[in-house]
Amino acid sequence: MGNLESQLINISQLSISILDNTIPIHKYTAIDLSVANDELLNIDITDPYTCQNYIDDILRGNNAQVAYGGYLEKRNLYQNNANFLEQGDTPRNIHLGIDFWTKAGTKVVTPINGKVHSFANNNFSGDYGPTIILSHSIAGISFHTLYGHLSLETLENLYIGKEYDQGEVLATLGTPDINVNYAPHLHFQIIKDMGKYEGDFPGVSTSKELEYYSKNCPNPQILLKI
Questions:
Q1: List of residues 6+ apart from 71 with CB closer than 8 A
Q2: Full-prediction pTM beyond 0.85?
Q3: First-to-last CA distance in the chain?
């Protein structure tokens, strides 16, 4: 385990909220959107409204408000989008963060202190829509967190270097027309090395690149413990 992972584990022994603090952790439930989930064989989850219906069923069945999961999950969610095909028709279909599926307009709160590294409206089909990336430093170790599928209002009055304390409201979740054709959710990702990216970073990997990306983007549960 790397130095960053060790530091993230030690931040808290308890679960850390990443959505509206009025939603208790026991109202979060796991969801499986992987190709291994037989329930999805006859469900077109590439359609945001069909996907939403499935998510709503999971939430009702578990008396929950938030459905979460997806780290290193191989999905069919991107199969109808040409933007997820690399050269040689190698699909990008392995998810590098955790998704938190809940209502549009839900508040997103910062899980740790940070400041704005960059932000953008990545409004291409299948992308993040409005996106914020925060930079952090713990015990001299620098890293970043990415928050995607936000509302347009989130980007108003934002500036590079703006500081946020843990638990402070960072954003709200966007609707499908704003978050580029997905059911409302937060994509949360930890990134060790941003490279030259600003306001964006790959959130889905090919199988060929997975070794690099899985090391560069550790499991967010190391921090959140939900």
A1: 95, 96, 97, 98, 219, 220, 221
A2: yes
A3: 20
